[in-house]
Structure formats: structure tokens, C-alpha cells
Amino acid sequence: MPFLEEKPRFRGITLPPSGWVLTVLLAIYILPGLIGHDPWKNDDAITIGIAYDIATNNNWLVLQAAGRIYPDAPLYYWLAAIVGKFFSWLLPFHDAARMTSGLYTLLSLEFVLLAARELHGREYAAVAPLTLAGSIGFLFHAHEAQPMLAALAAHTAAYWALALLPRRPYRAGIIFGSAVSMGFLANGFLPTVTLLPVLVIALWQFKNLKASLVFLLIGGILATAIPGAWLVSLYRTAPEYLESYLKAESATFAHSIPFHTNVGRYLNLLLWYAWPALPLAGWALWAKRRTLLSLPVALPLLSFIGVLAILGWFTSVRSSIALLLLPPLVLLAVPGVATLRRGAASAFDWFAMMTFTFFAGIAWLGWSTLVLGWPERLANRAVRLEPGFVIGNFNAMAFFFALTFTAIWFWMIVTSPRSPMRGVMHWMYGLTLFWLLVASLWMPWIDYGKTFRPLTASLNKALPEKVDCVASAGLQLSFLASLDYFQGIRTVPQKSEAAKRCSWLLVQGGGHNPATLVAAGWRQVWEGNRPTDRRDEDKFHLYRRGKKADPAPALTDLNADADDKSEALAPDRIPPE
Predict the structure, then answer these.
(1) Largest separation between any pair of C-alpha atoms in the chain
(2) Are 526 and 507 in contact (CB under 8 A)?
(3) Averaged over 516-540, what is the pLDDT?
(4) Within its chain, how far is the Cα of 174 from the centroid?
(5) Angstrom distance (rounded) from CA 277 to CA 198
(6) Cis-peptide, bond into residue 16, ω within 30° of zero
(7) Contacts of 237 (CB under 8 A, 6+ apart)
(8) Which of 92, 332, 408, 517 yields a CA-CA distance of 20 to 30 A from 508?
(9) What CA–CA distance (Å, rounded) separates 451 from 482?
(10) CA atoms of 292 and 120, how far apart (whole Å)
């Protein structure tokens, strides 16, 4: 049964949202959580550390994190360094640099909107950015310093170009070539390779041979010119870095997991990661089963299969890499929303409203626990989870900010007109509201447990003003980057030649034997960890070398420093200074 026109008692947002309304909705989604907290463990701290090194030491070609060579594609780090330095008068560097993620998120949402408009028309094009923003997996990465967001923006631009190909092949060639170039500079070969099946599918659908050749010529020149210039510059000025980068890239495509097992893991991840795009895309396939070979359905469907096959064959499962699976699912979900039956659309809308009203209540209950100390049992639990956190700090600005957007949520529920798009919009804004409440009301508690700032400050106090050097063993790169960013302390790898002169040794983890270090002439002077890190593996130990002690490289009972990503970097990717 078709949706009937309604005249709500109060005027609300017109569906589908467009223009400034859509822009404001997406801005509300992007901004909360980007600023207001320190660099956190994993990619956030590493990425900000690299951008900080570029901004302070001008290492534009040879990327470094805490003095360690870090072979990676440079685009995100370049822009983060520029943005961080440009806005450092207004924001701390890490907050300003993280705004780069907001920029690439905005570009991804805009490009997927344009692609949906070409494939499915203007009426339901807004479904695409709303569904992408509402995807649970996208939410987490959109609010951290994450280079894969630049690759996602490149992919969405490429889908727009290929959707535009039948109508404007020359412009499509320029956009596609620029997108491939941006994808390579953003994350290396992986975003480029995963676009190959998408390109083949689009050319298969497009029958104009002459226009296809012009498209390929323009796109090919743009796709190779800028990355080629970067690679040539590396070859001339830093050939060893280029060799390390190519080795790291080849390692990305090497894993021992069987293809079917890896694909199964990606699909299992998508069950929550790509919600609600995945079920909507599934319904679209059923609704459009008689026109599966038409461009609006075939392009996203076969692209998803192709990208999934490449990721399953070459890469181990990582949440950030799975971002590349979202654009085709989102584009396929657009006709799914347009063809939803009234009962299914109403059920989805009801589910979205009930789910996020409940989660908003949980967020406010958490605020009451952290600020008012009620309920008392939950407050005690919160302190046990974050030992040392002080209950009762009230932030008036955060409170009224959160209260305003909670009121907007209930206003949207009351005033939104009946439409197939209402469920998607309520889901997206509900997810945004929950994230906004957590980012504004819970951020002090979360940041207290995730930041390395107090730990690095405590370590800095344990060191004298003048230190020859500090050797390190077993440290994760996110901590090394945080130590450099917060305290300006750079360690040298314990196994390096430079570590022979170090009077200090910093060790992470319980794998080493303290008695062995004491026997070798080293004395522990400090121990520390973050409040949430209670395992021996997460503790840091600082040792001072005695006059007759063995030098740091001679100590064998220590693990090498490791990268903080899902897989440790090979030793040749983080060489000694």
C-alpha cells in the first residue's frame, strides 16, 4: 500500500531531506567526537604522531612516527599536518589534525549522494548518505584519525564517476582518474586494486567504445601522474624508504587464511558493521530481481562481489579495510528503501525510534552516574573500571548541548511526515544522537582511561632534566608516538647501535625477567600503566643502567618494539635510528 500524504500537527523536516537540512544533519553527525579528547591507542595516536612529525620536522616524503621510519601512503598525513598546523591557534594540534577525518567523511557522504543521484534519480538520492552515515562500522572510524577514510572518499568518488560515465564520459574520466590517484596516495595499492572490478563492470555496461577509450585515456593519465611523481621523488631522494614501502605494500596482500574462511569473516563482520545497509541491499536485490543486469543494480552488486573477493583473497580482516565494502552496499540499498512495503518501512521506523530512545536513556543514565553519583552502584562500578576517576564534574556546555539534541530527537519523532525514508532518517539521527550523547556526556570518563598523557607525564618526571638517551623494548608504536607528542621524548630501539650509549631502558610487558636485568647491572626506577591496563603485559618499566652494566643491545631477554596495528610491522619497516 503506498504511503499517504500527511499533514503533521507541527511542521517538521521535509522528506527526503535536501539542501541545508541534509547538510546540517550530516554536520551534526560528523563533528561530535572529533575534538575534545587526546590521541587514543591504535591508529588515532599513530596517525596524529606522524602528522605532528611532518608539521614540526618537515618530513614530508619520509614519514616518521616518534623517529621511526613508517612506510605508508602519505595523503592523509600531509593534509592532517597542514590542517593541524593551520588551526593550532584555535585547537590543540591533535584535535585540529583529526578534523581531516571530518573532511574526508564529508567528501564520502557528498560523493555517494552524487553517485546515487546518477544511478537512482534525485527523489531517493539522500538515502545513500543517510545510510552510509547510519552504518555502525562507519561511525567509529569517521571520528578517529584514520587514513582509510581518504581511501573511502576516493572510492565513493570513483563510483560517482562510473555512474556518470554514460552521460558525461569526459568529466567521468577526470573524476575517476583523480579518485584512483587519491586512493593510491591515501592507502597504497589496495584501494586501487579493489577498483579494477568496478571499472570493468562499468565499461561492460557502457557500450560506447569511443567514449570508453577517451574515458580510459583521461583517467589513466590522471591516475598515474601524481602517484608517479611521488614515487619518482622517493626513488631519487629516499630509495631505501621506497624499498621499505614496497615491501610493506606487498606484505598487505599476504596472509595464510583460506579464501572461503576469510570471506566468511568479512560477511560475519558486515552483519553489524553494515547495518542497516546490508538488509536494505538484500531487499533491493529481491525487489529488483528482474532487472539485475541494469546499471543501477549491476554496478553496486557486482562491485560488492568483486571488492569482497579481492579483500577475501589478499587481506586479513580489519575493521578499517571493511570500509571499502560500504559504498556498493549503500548504493544498492537506495532502491531497497524506495521499494519497501508500508508494513516493513513502519517496522523499521519503529525499531529505530525505540532502539535509540532506549540508548539515549542509557546515555543520560550514564551521565547521572558520572556527574551525580546516582545510581550509587553504577557510580562505584564506573570508578572500578577507571580507577582514580573523580565523580561529580559538571560541564554546563556539554549538558545543554546534549539536552538540545535530545529534544530535537523527540521533535523529529513527532513531526516527521510518513515516508519510506523516515526509518532511514530516524536511524541515522538516532545513531548520531547516541554518539553525540556519549561524546559530550561520557567523554571525560572515556578519555581518562584511553589517553597516554598522564602516563607519559609520570614517566617524564621520573627522568632527570638531561638524559643521554632512552632505549626501548616491547613498546607499541601508539605509545611511542604519544610519548613523543606529549613529552617530546624519543626512544631508540634496544637492538640498535645507538642504544649502546643509553643509560635508560624503557620496557613494556611482563615477558622480560627483572632478575636478568638486575644481574646485567640495570636498576628499576619507575613503573606505570594506564588506569584501565591491569595486565602485566600493559605495564611499563623504566630501568637505569649502572656504571658496569651491560649495554642495552646486549640484553637478550626483551621483545622488540612493535607496531600497534593488527599485525606487527616487520623489523625492516621500523629500522633503527
Answers:
(1) 87
(2) no
(3) 89
(4) 27
(5) 19
(6) yes
(7) 61
(8) 92
(9) 9
(10) 14
Distance, CA of 12 to CA of 327 (rounded, Å): 29
In tens, the pLDDT along 473-503 reads: 989 999 999 999 999 999 999 988 999 999 9
Q: What would the grid cell of residue 140 be?
A: 567509529
Question: Which residue's entry shows cell 618494539?
Answer: 561
pLDDT at 158: 95
Q: Over pLDDT 90: what percentage of the chain?
A: 66
Q: How far is residue 159's CA from residue 129's CA, in Å, rounded to a whole number?
A: 13
Q: What is the CA radius of gyration of the chain?
A: 26
Q: Is 491 exposed, middle or buried (0-12, 13-18, 19+ CB in 10 A)?
A: buried
Cβ count within 10 A of residue 144: 20
Distance CA 87, CA 94 (A): 10
**Residue 322 three-state SS:** helix
Q: Give, as one character, the DSSP assignment of residue 60.
A: S
Handedness of CA 424, 430, 436, 438 (dihedral sign): negative
Cell numbers describing residue 368: 547521572
Q: How many H-runs (helices) and E-runs (strands) does the chain carry?
A: 24, 7
